[in-house]
UniProtKB/TrEMBL annotation:
SUPFAM superfamilies: Cytochrome P450. It holds the Pfam family p450. Belongs to the cytochrome P450 family. Keywords: Heme, Iron, Metal-binding, Monooxygenase, Oxidoreductase. GO terms for molecular function: heme binding; iron ion binding; monooxygenase activity; oxidoreductase activity, acting on paired donors, with incorporation or reduction of molecular oxygen. It comes from the Bacteria. Signal peptide: none annotated. Gene3D superfamilies: Cytochrome P450. InterPro entries: Cyt_P450 (IPR001128), Cyt_P450_B (IPR002397), Cyt_P450_CS (IPR017972), Cyt_P450_sf (IPR036396). This is Cytochrome P450. PROSITE patterns: CYTOCHROME_P450. Its cofactor is heme.
Amino acid sequence: MSQVTVNSGASNVDAVLDAMLSPETIQNPYPSYKVLRDNPPVYGLLDYPPGTVPGVDQPFPAWVFTRYDDVDFILRNPQLFSSEDPMQANSSAPSLMLVNHDQPRHTALRNLAKIAFTPRRIHDNIVDRLRADVTTIIAENLGKQTDFMESVAGVIPAMVMTYLMGLPKQDYKKLVRWANAFMVSSDFTPEERLECNKELFEYFVAKVGERYAAIEAGEEVEDNLMTAFINAESDGDTLTKDEVTLFCITLVVAGAETTTYFLGNLIGVLLEDKTWFDKLKQDRKLIRPFMEECLRRDGPPQRLFRVVLEDCEVGGRQLKKGEWLAFFMAAGNHDESAFPNPEQFIINRDNINRHLTFGRGIHHCLGAPLARVEGETMLNGILDTCSTVEGELSNTRRQSGGLLAYGFSTLPVVLKPSEAGEG
């Protein structure tokens, strides 16, 4: 992981805050997080929630929280901090399900989502198809220079979304583009982001409408996630057609984008320390702890926003009702008080299950098991097929379009095929 030196000290905090959205900080935010952790929480960050459009939407100034205990407290206390996002609500973006809901509706929605989001649908029903597609994708890229982000990491999660919802497989390329635009990463013009938001919404309005029409006509439909959302019922409660549409959109923009960066970051660790490839190849039981440490140290999700619901104190700061705050899970994951030597990649940490990458409490990410399945399947496919992954971190580039996600924009590698009889 590349490093940028930032001098600590309260006098430097304003400069760090002013530079938070610079390409250099987005590509490597961790030194800036350290400066912010070493000082009292600061006010005034101007950044963009998912779906909003820089240059069109006006960000609200926010308090910034980067210490593990503060981030954990905010996540665990939804009664104090609202997830309803007025900035996104006033933008062109579709609202995100669960992510932007508070109790009691959040509880009802999550109960309905869990009925649809079963282990069978997100694992058993897709795992064979996933393995087959991963095998094909790797085979197509064996032995030649390839941009891993474009040819592998950028394909797998979006393709999985087409399985889950029963969409045409070839549409995965559209999903990738729309997710990149929505999550305020990569380089898009404001006009391109607005158009992508519009296309994304109209696509799922049409697809969900078609599925409802098929069900109402008595046609036999596949028991996939979209169908399950339509049919889900809990204590007499069901999802509206609009809510089903927004659930599908949420899965695509949150699942495809962050998992793409997660898959790339796994390979980044293999380039950083090339002993890992043989260790994993020889002992596949190391894959899970390897992934968890990557999620902690290099987890793609960087931060979320909340609105203060009542006057309270966090991190020694008095917050007022209605104020806006940004809390950085990625900064908490690098807090020395929670994870000693946080910049080092150390598997089997005693407290690795405390990392914040997938959130906490009622907002813990429903898609976390799916991301892990995709990561494990991809790594096993590469280890089964390849003798090594050739590449240098110095030839890679991290995305610099927005602070929401940490991941590669380009990751040139050569997947070297195993010799006959090897592996």
